[in-house]
C-alpha cells in the first residue's frame, strides 16, 4: 500500500527513502512526477526507487527482465485503467500503475514481483529488496500508525435497514418453499427426494442472503476503513470475515448440511416439531458486532466444533499419509540417462514428468515452463527502450558491465538460419486461424524443445503478429536460456519431492464433502478422505460414479436420447411403478393385483405395454413381463398355448382406465391348463387359506423388489448438461458437440459401456480398480492422476502434475494398481530393512531371518540405517576400480595415492550385478561431464576411471 | 419374424464379431476393411445369421497372419451358455487336424470348472484365449483413456534394453491378464510400447514387460 502515499516534496520523499536505510543503498533521484508549482514525487516512484536500488539492477538488460503483471484483490477490470488502481504493472523494475499488495510482494503467486526478481536477478537481489521494503514498512507503520477499533465494524443505519429488508424477503421465500413442500406441490429436482429438494432450495436462498448482506456491507464501507485495508491488501482476513463482523454471520453447516434434528424432529427444544425455518436450521441473522442470541450461539459453536475436530483428525490422517508417500517414493531419482529409477535401477518413468523439466523451475501456472506473457513484455520493453537503455549505460560510469544478455550456451540448438537478419517472420491473418500443428510447421522452432513448449511458443508467436529479427532473436535466446535452466538435474530425489509436494497441500484441504459440480444431490467424497481412498487403492470406495457421454445419433435430440439411455440404465423396481396392490380372492382362485402408475412409468420411459398385441393376448410378451418372469425363474409361456396370461403374469387395462398387473403364482407353478392348476391349489384342499395368504404376501414382498427396468447395479442416474466450453482440465477433453452427460451412481462401468446409446469410448469411472479391470493398467493410471488432481483442484490446491504422475507411475509400475499401504509397499520393495523400518518391524525381521534373506543396502532407508551416504544427488555417484584392472588387490587409489592400477571409464546404469555379466561400457564425454565427477589427483596417462553413475555394490571400493 | 430377444442377440453378436475382427487385424491377421468383412453392416449380418439357422457355430472364423502364412488363428463361438468339456475337446480335434496353434473362444457367460481345467491342460500345446461376450461388445483400445499399445518384436526389445542398459526385470510391467494385453494376445516376456498423450510433454513413450 506504499503507493497510496500522497505526492510529496523532495525533502519528505528522499527522507522517506534514504535516511531510514542508513548506508544500505544510495537511491538516484528520479524526475519529479509533478513539476509545478513545486516539484513533487509520488509513492509509486518511491516504491520503484526501492526496487531499483540494487547495483545489479543498474544493468539495463537485467532490469528489463523485471516485468510483472498482477491483479490485486480489488481488481475490477480494464487492466492498467482499473478504477480501483488494483492492477499492478511493473516494467523494467519501475512501478507503472497499481497499488502494491500481497499478490505483488507476497509468495503465493508466480506473477509476484519478488518471484520475478528472484528468477531473473537472483535470490540475493530479491532478498535485498525484501529487506528494504520490510525496513520501510515497519518504519512507516511506527510513524504513521495503523489501528483497528470497534468503530470500524459498526454498521450504518442504512445498512441495518437494507439488511433487515433482505432478511425479511428471503425468509418469506423460504417459508413459501416450505409451504410447497408441505402441500406436496414441490417439483423434485432430478434424482432428489422432496426433502432434499427443499433443503437445496433453502440452502440456496440463505447463502444468497448472506452474499447480498456481504455485498451491501462492502458497498457501505469506506476504502480507508482499517478492516477493508487489511482485507484488500491481503494482510489478514477476507471480505467474508468483514461482512460477518458487520452484517450477517450466515448459515452454520454441520456435516455439509444445515443443522440436523437431534431433538425429535427439531434441532433444539425451543422449536416446534418439524420446524424447517431458517432459524431452526442454524441460520445466524445477526452479525458478530450485534451479537448472537443463545440459539444462534449454540449453532455457531456446533459448526465451530466441527471445524476444530476436522482439523485435529485431518492432521493425523495426512501426516500418516505423507509418511507412507515418503516410504514408497523415497529412493526414486533421476538417473543420468534421464529416466526415473528405483534404488535397484528399475525404471519407473522413461523421462521424468514426460518432458524432463523440473517442477521447481516452472515459471507459469499449471506447470508451464515459461510465462509467455511476461516474456513478451520484456521483449517489448527492451525493444521500445533500447536506445534509452544503451544511453543510460554510457552515461553512468558506475555501472559495471555485466555479462552480455546473449550468452554462448555451447553448441546452439537454434539453427543459424533463424538468427540471420534477413529472417522476418510475418503472420497473415489467415495463418492465425490455423491449428497449432500447422503453425508449428511454419515457425522454425527447435525440435529439441519439449513438445508442449513448442506448441505454446508457436501459439504465442502467432498471436503476436509480425516480429522483426531482433525480437525473434531475443525470444529464442530467452526461451532457450529458460529451458536450459528448467531441465531436471540427474540425481534429483524426485520421489521425495513428489511425496512432500502432494502430502503438504493435502493437509490444507478443509471440509469433508462437496456438492458435485452442476448437479446437486450427487454427493461425491472429496478432500482428504477421497485422496486417502485413491492412494490406498481401496477396493470399495464410498461414492463410485460413472460418467458417460452419449453417442451421436442423427435425427434425435441429445436430451431425448439421454432420457432413453437413462431408462436403460437406472434401476427401477416394481414397487416404484405400483400405486397400490392387493390380494384378490375369487371363488376358486386367488391372485395379486397391482395398479400401475401409468403416468410415472411413462415419465420414466417404461413401456408398460398395454397394446393391441397384448389385448389379443398374442404370443409376443412385453419386455416388462419378460423381465419379471426371468427374475422369478418362472418358465416362459408356451407360444402355442393361449391365452398367454395363463402362464401366471398379465397386464390388463380395466374399464375405468387403470392398468393392472396381475400375478397368479399357482399358474406359474405348473404350466398346465388353468382349470388343472386351480384344482391343484384348491380342489384337494391340501392347503388352508391362511397358508395361501401367507404364500401370496411373501410373493408380494418379493415382487415389489423386482427390477422392471435398468441394471440392478445402478442406483441412480442423473443427466448433466455441460456448458459448451467445459473441458476436463487434465488434457483429455470431452467432445463438446454432445454436451449432455450421464452420471451414474454405480461402479458397473462395463455394463454402462455396453449399453446402446452410450459412446463407449467416453465412459469414465472414478473407481481406479474398476477402470483397471475393464480398461487395463494404463487407463487406471490416467484415472488415478486425473482423480487426484481434480480432488486437489476442488479445494483450490494446485499440485504440479509431474508429482502426481510420478506417484501414479509408482503405484502402477508393477502391472497392477498397488496402494500406498503396508501391503502395496511390501509388493513394491524387496528390502527387508526398508520394510522393517516402515511397519510390522518384527514380522519382517522374523521372516527374513527364517528365510535367510540378504539385503543389498541400496535404498535410502537401508543406507541411513547403516550410516552410509544415500544414493541420491551427489551420493549417487561413486568411484570404483574395475576388478580385472586391479586384480585381487584391494586398492584405494584415491586415498593412498597408489596409481599403479588401471582405471577404465565405465558408466553403469544397472548398478547392481555388473560384475556378474554386465559389460563395462565407454561413456561419452558428455556423460562423464554430467557425472559431476572430477578426478583431481594426478594420474598416469594410461590410468582409467570407473564411473558408477548409479550406485552399486562396488561403491564400497572407493569408500 | 424375429422376436426382439433374437434381434437383441443378433446385434450383440454383430458387435462382438466386429471387435473380434478388429482385434485380429491389430494382431496382424488378415482382415479386409471392406463391407464384406470388417465393415459388414448389421442388416446383412442379421440376414446371414438367420439364414444359417441362428447357429453360433456359423460365426466360426479361421484367419491367417498377414506375413507369416503358417500362423493361423481360430475363433470359436460355442452355443452353450456355460461351456463344458465336450466342445473344448471338439475344438482341440479341429486344431489338431488342421494344424492350427491358436484359438479364441468367445463364451457367453463362462466355462464349467472341468472345462477350465481342460483348457489349462491344453495350454502348452495350443494357445487358447477365452473371452466373455460382454468383454467384446466394445473395443476397449478405442477408449479415450487407453493409450496406443504396440507389441515390440524381439529385435526391437533388444534395442530397447540396450538403449537404456536394462535387464528385463527392470522394465515397468503389465499383467498378461490385463484387458489390453489380452486384446493383443501377448505372452510372458514380450514388451509393449505405450504412447500416451501427456499434459506436460504432449507425447510420452513408455514400455511395459508382460508378466
Automatic annotation (TrEMBL), chain A:
Would the keyword Nucleotidyltransferase be found if you checked this record's keyword annotation?
A: yes
Gene Ontology terms for molecular function: DNA binding; DNA-directed RNA polymerase activity; metal ion binding
Instruction: Name the reaction it catalyses.
Output: RNA(n) + a ribonucleoside 5'-triphosphate = RNA(n+1) + diphosphate
Listed A to Z, the keywords are: DNA-directed RNA polymerase, Magnesium, Metal-binding, Nucleotidyltransferase, Nucleus, Transcription, Transferase, Zinc
Q: Name one GO cellular component term.
A: DNA-directed RNA polymerase complex
Q: What is its main location?
A: nucleus
Query: Which residues belong to any copy of the RNA polymerase Rpb1 domain?
Result: 28-152, 181-284, 291-832
An individual GO BP term? DNA-templated transcription
Compartments annotated for it: namely: Nucleus
Please name one Pfam family that this protein belongs to: RNA_pol_Rpb1_5
The reply on keyword Transcription is: yes
| This enzyme's EC code(s) | 2.7.7.6
Could you identify this protein by its name?
A: DNA-directed RNA polymerase
Q: Which organism is it from?
A: Cyanidiococcus yangmingshanensis
From TrEMBL, chain B:
Q: In which domain of life is the source organism classified?
A: Eukaryota
Q: Which residues form the RNA polymerase Rpb5 N-terminal domain?
A: 8-94
All residue ranges annotated as the RNA polymerase subunit H/Rpb5 C-terminal domain in the record: 138-210
Q: Which Pfam families match?
A: RNA_pol_Rpb5_C (PF01191), RNA_pol_Rpb5_N (PF03871)
Q: Which Gene3D superfamilies match?
A: RNA polymerase, Rpb5, N-terminal domain, RPB5-like RNA polymerase subunit
An annotated GO cellular component: RNA polymerase II, core complex
Query: Which GO molecular function annotations are given, in alphabetical order?
Result: DNA binding; DNA-directed RNA polymerase activity
One of this protein's GO BP terms? Answer: transcription by RNA polymerase II
* SUPFAM superfamilies cross-referenced by the UniProt entry: Eukaryotic RPB5 N-terminal domain (SSF53036), RPB5-like RNA polymerase subunit (SSF55287)
Q: Which UniProt keywords apply?
A: Nucleus, Transcription
**InterPro entries hit by this protein:** Arch_Rpo5/euc_Rpb5, RNA_pol_Rpb5_N, RNA_pol_Rpb5_N_sf, RNA_pol_subH/Rpb5_C, RPB5-like_sf
The subcellular location is: Nucleus
- Cross-referenced PANTHER family, in alphabetical order? DNA-DIRECTED RNA POLYMERASES I, II, AND III SUBUNIT RPABC1 (PTHR10535)
* Protein family according to the UniProt entry: Belongs to the archaeal Rpo5/eukaryotic RPB5 RNA polymerase subunit family.
* Name of the protein this chain belongs to: Dna-directed RNA
